[in-house]
């Protein structure tokens, strides 16, 4: 929460007026501060060595730290994917706008097609994150 609050101070429009650029700047600052905070918290509370076992697998502080990094990576990827599917200069939005030219029916059909398509990649990213962290730390990942 603290890193998110600090990150909001870096969300400022630059000279180019890019809203997404400003949001990405805040996201990057928050992510970097979260990595540092996660490292400090892991070191102070768990250490980097083995802290226990889960289903016969050793769980270390390092594994849990890497799980946190994977979570941050998943967050970043979800933001990038969302920006792709909602950005006015990207294919999905432009295809819906193009379908609007020919009438309401094609607009609805194209909007439905894009909405169905837009859920696949985030789901794959989330499942990949879940599988990766499970492999590293079992249910604690």
What this model shows, in words?
With 141 residues, the chain is mainly alpha-helical. It folds into two domains: 1-45, no CATH class; 48-141, no CATH class. The protein contains six helices and two strands. It has helices at 2-8, 19-45, 61-86, 91-100, 104-118, 120-137, and strands at 50-54, 57-60. It has a two-stranded antiparallel ribbon with strand order 1-2. Helix 3 packs antiparallel against helix 6 (120-137) and helix 4 runs antiparallel to helix 5. The chain is flat and about 60 Å long. The chain starts with a helix and ends with a helix. The model has no long low-confidence stretch (mean pLDDT 90).
Give the structure's gist in a few sentences:
This protein is mostly helical. Helix content is 73%, strand content 6%.
Instruction: Find the structural class using helix and strand composition.
Output: mainly alpha
Please provide the count of β strands.
Answer: 2
What amount of the residues lies in strands? 5-15%
Q: Which strand order do you get reading across the main beta sheet?
A: 1-2
Average predicted confidence as pLDDT: 90
Termini separation comes to: 20 Å
The poorly predicted ranges are none
Order of helices and strands: HHEEHHHH
How would you sum up the major sheet?
2 strands, antiparallel
The tally of helices reads: 6
Index terms:
141 residues; mainly alpha; two-stranded antiparallel sheet; 6 helices; 2 strands; flat
Topology (elements, then pairings):
Layout lengths: L1 H7 L10 H27 L4 E5 L2 E4 H26 L4 H10 L3 H15 L1 H18 L4
Antiparallel strand pairs: 1-2
Helix pairs in contact: 1-2, 2-3, 3-6, 4-5
């Amino acid at each position: 929460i603290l890193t998110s609050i600090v990150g909001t101070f870096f969300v400022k429009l630059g000279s180019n007026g890019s809203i997404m650029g400003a949001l990405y700047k805040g996201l990057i600052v928050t992510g970097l501060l979260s990595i540092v905070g996660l490292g400090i918290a892991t070191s102070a509370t768990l250490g980097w060595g083995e802290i226990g076992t889960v289903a016969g697998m050793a769980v270390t502080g390092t594994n849990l730290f890497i799980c946190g990094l994977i979570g941050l990576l998943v967050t970043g990827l979800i933001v990038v994917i969302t920006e792709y599917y909602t950005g006015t200069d990207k294919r999905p939005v432009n295809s819906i706008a193009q379908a609007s030219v020919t009438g309401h029916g094609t607009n609805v059909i194209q909007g439905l097609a894009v909405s169905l398509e837009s859920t696949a990649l985030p789901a794959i990213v989330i499942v990949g994150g879940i599988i990766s962290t499970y492999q590293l730390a079992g249910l604690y990942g």
